[in-house]
Amino acid sequence: MIAPTTLPRSLGLWGILFLTLSITTPASSLFVIAPGILHEAGTGAVWALALAAVVSIATAYVYAELASAWPVAGGEYVFVGQTLGQGPAFVMLAINLVSNVLIAPVLALGVAEVMATFIPALPAVPVAIAVLALATLIAVLNIRLNALITGIFLAVELAALALVAALGLFEPVHPLALLAAPMVADGGTLAPLTLAGFGTAASIAIFALNGPGCAIYFGEELHEAPRQMGRAILISSGLTILSIGLPLVAALLSAPDLIAFLSADDPFGAFVAARGGSTLAALVGGGIVLAIVNAVIATILACARFLYGTARDRSWNLPLDEWLSALHPRWASPWLGTLLVGAVMIACCFLPLSFLLVVSGAGLIVIYAGIAAAALVGRRRGLTGGDTYRMPLFPLPPLVTLAALTLILWATWLDLEEGRPALIATAVQIGCAWLYWRLILVRRGWKASVPM
Q1: What whole-number distance in Å separates Cα of residue 332 and Cα of residue 312?
Q2: What is the pTM of this model?
Q3: In 255-277, which ranges are continuous DSSP H helix?
Q4: 347 contacts: CB under 8 Å, gap ≥ 6
Q5: Which end of the chain is more exposed for a tag (fewer CB within 10 A), N or C?
Q6: pLDDT digits over 31-57, tens only?
Q7: If DSSP codes are grouped into helix, strand and coil, which group holds residue 37?
């Protein structure tokens, strides 16, 4: 059997939605990330999420226009290469590489903690390795089969979120006016929300809603990609906002002890247990574990395709470029690249979680800034905004994204324990990437290409 030379177009709109929402993993965002928003903003978490939703939609418009113009597996670095030049393109590639490779180990290392509610004392690293190994083997299979698997897992995840929302909406104990004057838990009492707390919460909320743009990595496998990409990204963004925002509002309005809810380490798990009992809480916890596993599978799929694009552009050296771009003769997947990235992710599980978070922490700022600038330049040069998709209200969406990044940068720099080291680590990555491009890739004539 002869191996295919290009990724076959076998995905429809539903398939790419399943994969993209699985990467976004709204259930994990609600149960794992949203508590940080509550700790920082209290009842103002709703307003922080609302601001993040505006940014998410604006960024989705940016992604939609760029991905419709260039629906290729390389994603963001190709957008930047076509608009801002090859040096910035490789910097974007390097930042994305670190982010894509490290996010799955971070997710997998959290599985044991989530499972502790019903299976205590599980060792984090062995569980993470098992999750990554299983996810890697699944990711080697045909993309349509993976879309089906992730779609089934996603249905369980959304059902868990719907249950949280239903438990809250059917028996609210606080008036909607509670949200009008945001308050935070402070030593057993409620105190007014500060601007700094709101800024930090908004930056966390933007991270929680991140993910719809990952549809771009499956662009070469999508039927009618130029016309469908924008729709897939925008629908994913809307569903992500709804599936996180509705349970958040419902739980805030229905928490019997508001101060305890705002300060709890696992507020939504405790809320489900209080309203539905321990058995229901365990079932929901199982759904969250499944959501994380699902996100790991979809993330490996996306990362393997991103690396496929970098190898096709000959970003590395033989034989690595050949391995990463090799397609399986039966499943038409970048199978060697999938196995390789899975092995690297497993190795990352032996690194301290704090190190993984610091190294990958501020990459999102660079990625969003890069695509916002690419959208502005691409439209000005007539490279984007054609018949396939043209974002409304241009140039407002990329400008909103850049304004939000200023807020995130400020909040991140003020965080001396994790935020500032993350910015420094990202700056080091940018410097190393630029040197690699300048000293090695320029001599090869490297270019972020768009395959025809």
Answers
A1: 15
A2: 0.92
A3: 258-263, 267-276
A4: none
A5: C
A6: 888 988 999 899 999 999 999 999 999
A7: helix
